[in-house]
Amino acid sequence: MTDTGVSLHDGVHVDLSDGTSVVVDAGSPDGDVNVLTHAHGDHLFRGNPGPVVCSAATADIARERRPSADVERTDDPRVGLVNAGHVAGSRAAVITDPDGTRYCVTGDVSTRDRLYLDGFDPPDVDVLVVEATYGSPEYVLPPQAEVEREIHDWLADTMDRPVLLFGYSLGRAQKLQVLAAESDRERVFVTESVARITDALAPHVDATFDAAVWDADAASGGSGPAGSSPAGLGPGDALVLPRGRATRSLAERLRTERGALAAGFSGWAIDDSFRYRGNYDATFALSDHCDFPELCALVEVADPDEVYTMHGSTDELATELTRRGFRATALRKGQATLGDF
Fold first, then answer.
1. Can you spell out the DSSP letters for 321-335?
2. Rg, Å, the chain Cα set
């Protein structure tokens, strides 16, 4: 296999012919040029990253998620950013070597148009590094319009109960606010953590987020901050919150005391086990990633000479792409170069 200069260590490293090292999504960025595709925790730096190539939205969200970091946004003529369609501000990195070779590192990616997000339009490149979260053939998501219709129907059918809508604080939590606002529910709330991320990204997207901040102390009869939710969560109300230890006890209390129904939203919802693992009353396959057919179609459009898969079902996707005639390999952490396979 040709040595393309691509390797996976702390982030994806692309070594250019002039000796420049471009590093994408490293926890401790150490490249000559450092790129951040989006601000999800598994892609975001841990400390002060130094200058990073990223979108304005990603810089603002990163400042919110890493308050102690000095996030300095920069540009580099060798790195172009194209919309990745994953979450607000997400960008794929298109890196041009002085020798003319074009690389694309997608980060997390979705080719679907969804609410206020446009899907990824794959560029024509020589070397593609693509995520494989749903890179196994069984992961086929229903059409976006069908998923949104199912969510709207469930929100309408459960107006006699308060509902808890679980989604990542960056990405699905904002889409759930939009979907809940489109329903007949007059009161939509979010947790403080969701509100902070929403405030950071809101200026960068064409959407309105009017949810009030839910304050558990105020809802229990204590005194909450100005603008927080009034006491109680009643029939017809919706609360958008992230899944985690901090919200687990709150959710169980609201289900017991208020009769709230809990719904989970993820591409993993196509598997029944997702519902039972999360103890949800309902689940919906609302995803911010490409499914298996969409990943294969993405590669077909980009038409690279070399393609490498990372994050998720890397072997399964590489096997399918090889069957389709591509030179495809799962990218493994720690190897010196891809020529070592």
1. HHHTT--EEE--BT-
2. 21
Alpha carbon distance 222, 216 (integer Å): 8
Query: What are the φ and ψ backbone dihedral angles of 35, each rounded to 5 degrees?
Result: -125, 140
Q: Where are the alpha helices (DSSP H) in the chain?
A: 56-65, 144-157, 172-182, 192-201, 216-219, 245-258, 273-278, 292-302, 314-323
Q: What's the whole-model pTM score? A: 0.92
CA distance 100 to 183: 51
Q: Tokens 């206020």, residue?
A: 116
Longest CA–CA span in the chain (Å) reads 66
Contact assessment for residue 329 and residue 309, using Cβ atoms and an 8 Å cutoff: yes
pLDDT averages per 10-residue partition of the chain, 341 residues: 82 97 97 97 92 98 94 96 98 98 98 98 98 97 98 97 96 97 94 97 96 73 40 89 86 93 96 93 98 98 98 97 98 54 30
What DSSP letter does each residue of 87-128 carry, written as one string?
STT-EEEEEE-TTS-EEEE--S---S-BTTBPPP-----SEE
The CATH label, of 3.60.15.10, 3.40.50.300, 3.30.70.1400, 3.40.50.150, for the domain at 6-138+289-340 is 3.60.15.10
